[in-house]
Amino acid sequence: MAEEFVKEITPRAEDYSQWYVDCVLKAELADYAPVRGCMVIRPYGFAVWEKIQAILDRRFKETGHENAYFPLFIPRGFLERESEHVEGFAPELAWVTRGGGEELAEPLAVRPTSETMICSMYAKWIHSYRDLPVLINQWCNVVRWEKATRPFLRTTEFLWQEGHTAHAREEEAREEALRMLEIYRDFLEEDLGIPVIAGEKTPSEKFAGAAHSYSVEALMGDGRALQAGTSHDLGQNFSRPFDISFLDRDGQLKHVWQSSWGVSTRLIGALIMVHGDDRGLVLPPRIAPVPAVLVPIAPERAREAVLGRARQLAAALEGVHLDDRDEYTPGWKYNDWEMRGVPLRIELGPRDLEQGKAVLVRRDTGEKVPVDQEALPRAMAQMSSAVQAGIKERARNFLQERTWPVDNLDQLRFRLEERRGMFIAGWCGDDACEAAVKEATGATARNIPFAPAARSAACVVCGKAAAHTVYYARAY
RNA sequence: CGGGUGGUAGCGCAGUUUGGUAGCGCACAGCGUUCGGGACGCUGGGGUCGCAGGUUCAAAUCCUGUCCACCCGACCA
Q1: What is the ipTM of this complex?
Q2: Domains along the sequence of chain A with CATH
Q3: What is the pLDDT of residues A439-451, one digit of tens each?
Q4: Gap from A16 CA to B3 C1', in Å?
Q5: DSSP assignments along A425-440, one per residue
Q6: How much is the CA Rg of chain A, to the nearest whole Å?
Q7: pLDDT tens-digit series, residues A74-100
Q8: Is the CB of A159 under 7 A from strand B?
Q9: Which 378-437 residues of chain A approach strand B with CB closer than 7 Å?
């Protein structure tokens, strides 16, 4: 795929950010809205989100969760109850102060996340250990008044899911947080083909109000890290101020233990940056809204024969979109669908017709294979699996190639100046050393991996014995 | 939120220095020829020059303000 066919998209090497924006706009995933920092998710982009939703929603339900919906507006008082939470979110809240033409007695925040609203309801609903656990998920939009926005990666309003659970025991909440992180990890790797590093956030990077935060971190094509999903063990940090208590078996009144976890439309940004190439998107077959496109090559002499057979095939084959637009040439269509990341393409022309064949083409490698028309279902299934596995493998290799252990700050700095990527380093556990890395290199602690690829003996900053191994990276 | 760049037709741009009836390529529409990696010809439609003020006989062009986007930094899914 070295040749340059698409002129619509800026090559990655020339300007990675522009390439990303070109992909978003030209593939018609999203467009800028007339409101600062907001985007419109267009049908093709929303179809990707619906695929993501469908898979995750099923997995949430398989693990006992139910969907519900809570209000968009959050009374000011709610947010103020958990001091760390309000401090963390205060700078990015949008407030409603008027309604129905009158000043509101109490301003309402547009939810940046729903912990407080949901907790207020849990306090009403939970009375006994028999009411537990409560396992609820919500698909919704949230608003955070971000200073710098980019389509999908960081927008003022975005779509996500937020799971909120309440448990009788501390370990249960912790286990839940880890269980859901594992679902995210598996989903990212197997369905999106995005390898991630699962681990725990450092205290300074954890969610405002959490006892422990966990994350899955992915590496984008430009070597910058992206937090792809988070899961929090909230401890009793919310159940105490919101007084969510239950009478336990032993007759004692206790506060529940909670978790919350979420992924957002940011995942679409990750898909673009992990798999995309200079021709545009490369979508994993499992979430591609259009799994395959059939492009007929229909010169005048064979027009009806080709189109007729193309219609038959498209109708018989599952997930095949027939592009029989008369106004575009086959070459134009190839480029168009490649830009949109469609995993497989079937070309059908007069020559194929004579031989009872079709040409099957892979989006990720460009490989073209002539296939007997009768054998298409099997060949497509095979090639589809090959694409799914191929892009995952490629992404995994990229992550490995771009991960380096470092022993000291200078090494980290020099390496990072050369090339962006993930850096494995020791950490003594002191906030000051973590801050020093950021100060000196711009890289932040992504997480403390559950399964580090390498171990470090000494803190990368102070040289004292390392209590943890940390992944550092410049992040989105 | 700081520093930088930019906003002229759907997209990409020229025109702004030196004020004087808004242009090019692609896209779009009609007709014809075409179809194995972004086809071609002819004809045609489309712009209150981001927005609001100001200067001037006259503003895309000069002045002030403002909005938006992009890039680089500080904060976040």
Answers
A1: 0.84
A2: 16-275 (3.30.930.10), 292-386 (3.40.50.800), 403-473 (3.30.110.30)
A3: 888 899 999 999 9
A4: 21
A5: EEE-S-HHHHHHHHHH
A6: 25
A7: 999 998 898 888 888 888 899 888 888
A8: no
A9: none
